[in-house]
Amino acid sequence: MAFQAELPEDDDPLLQFAPYLHTAPRSNSITPPLQRRFVATLAATGIVKQAARSIGKSLEALYKLRRLPGAEGFAGAWDAALERGVQRLEDCAMERAIRGTPTPIVSQGAILGWWDKPDNHLLQFLLRARLPAPYAREAQLVPGHPVYERLREELRAEFERERWEASQTPAAIAAREDLVARLEQKWRYDWEAERSAQRLSENNNP
């Protein structure tokens, strides 16, 4: 499974939430143990669909459950687990940026060997996002900034969609570099749009 980490221990604070209690549980109810297993798997994978599959329940049933009155504890643990999974994906991205990914050494159509190729584009993107003061050109792009949070969600979604752990071919590596370039271009566009709006507001309110 992509980015599968160790499941949280039973005494992990993440699993100490108040689960939803069915007033008349049925054989297919999402019981408290299943709710905790779902949250644990979500924290380990960062992928809701995979966590749902681990307990044999549909996404529809789980989203319906989290909206029920009395399921606030489950919903909060769900969000916290997803945040933990996202943080781990960021750690994986940083590791791939620094340590590299297996890349073939090709000569005349034949693979001669492999080497771990650092991803400089990904590293630069992460540095600008996490340490904006020294690395971002003009923007103070920090956690909590709308552009930062939007890009973070986009990057997480791309990790889930692309399954980067399987990206070992030259074509996949090129596609990853193109993704980072497109995200950087979008960041510059969004930042310039914000600056233009701010200048317009200042001009209209001298």
Would you mind describing this structure in some detail?
With 206 residues, this protein is mainly alpha-helical. The protein folds into 2 domains: 13-86, no CATH class; 101-204, no CATH class. Helices cover 60% and strands 7% of the residues. The chain contains 8 helices and 2 strands. Strands 1-2 form a two-stranded antiparallel ribbon. Strand 1 and strand 2 (110-117) form a beta hairpin. Helix 4 (72-99) crosses helix 5 (120-130). The protein is flat and about 65 Å long. The model has no long low-confidence stretch (mean pLDDT 77).
SS-based structural class?
A: mainly alpha
Count of separate DSSP helical elements: 8
The neighbouring-strand order within the major sheet is: 1-2
C-alpha geometry:
flat
- Radius of gyration from CA coordinates: 21 Å
Order of helices and strands: HHHHEEHHHH
Total number of β-strand segments? 2
Characterize the biggest β-sheet.
2 strands, antiparallel
Number of domains: 2
Distance N to C terminus: 56 Å
Low-confidence stretches: none
β-strand amount:
5-15%
Mean pLDDT: 77
**Helix percentage:** 55-70%
